[in-house]
Write a structure and sequence with these properties.
176 residues, alpha+beta, 5 helices, globular, binds flavin mononucleotide
Length: 176
Amino acid sequence: VDRYTLTKIFETATWAPTHRMTEPWQIKIYEGEAKHDFASLIIESYIRSGYASNGKEEKTRKMMEGVKKFITDIPHHALIYMDKNADQRMYEEDYAAVCAFIQNAQLVAWEYQVGILWTVNPYLYDPVFTSAVGLDDEKHKLVAVLQIGYPERIPQKRKRTPISQKIEWVKRKTER
Ligand SMILES: Cc1cc2nc3c(=O)[nH]c(=O)nc-3n(C[C@H](O)[C@H](O)[C@H](O)COP(=O)(O)O)c2cc1C
């Protein structure tokens, strides 16, 4: 996906609602050669967190190869992050705005036939990974990694629960 299109996608996504206009979204895009380093950082984090052992066993070796292939095959990985806030309400407002931004990006991307997969992985909660990508766990919340490219195939739609099961129409005054 060319840089103009990627920029356009994220630029349009900034029309997301943002309380107090904090515009909390920050993006690091890993592409080209940088994907090899990015894959190594992910694998190191998996080993550190015990999600994978140190690569001696066949199963772990296969898993690591799978991660490497997944990361390098996909054209762009956008790490989305934001500043943390000591105030819970402001933190959650900013997190909500970043989530709105992400979905906007997905919807805009589709207009350009570009697919974006929203992922949240264990390494996003690993402070060592956070500092390895040049960020600070005290200051930054890693929100997601978006995998971006032109899809080879379009997945089937996943069924949704009928909305009638989720809506409660509240019309009467509550008894106190
Ligand atoms: C916060 C969040 C985290 C997600 N993390 C992952 C993930 O780690 N891996 C993945 O394959 N999909 C992930 N998804 C995508 C969901 O699996 C996907 O939205 C769901 O399967 C419905 O598919 P659809 O969005 O194409 O309708 C995530 C979605 C959200 C909102």
